[in-house]
Design brief:
Length: 118
Amino acid sequence: MSSTAGGEIHTTGAASLEGNFTTDDGTPYCIAITTSETIDSFKVVKATLSYTKETDMTGHVTVNGSVGEYVKLTCTREGTTNTVITGKVTGTGVDPPDTIVGNGKWSLRAEAEVSGHR
């Protein structure tokens, strides 16, 4: 994966996460993740998204990873890893660490339409 985007990721419920990332050219992407099990609440204010091409942040993906002091989530589509989200959890982290398994959907954030990025 040759490109990165900065952003954040946080829990939005007992079994859901949301991540927001902006590429170097200013395109804002959002991923909504639903997990198969409940996870402890956490937030990463300085997360990094690694990807190969911007089309990696489209459609549905399978999500696997973990959260403890750090979060690492691998997003795959049709058996191929296309994005990885990493970062240090803000505050004390999740102890004991949680395994994250679920599904996600990438989309452009609403601001993208306002700023002219599509």
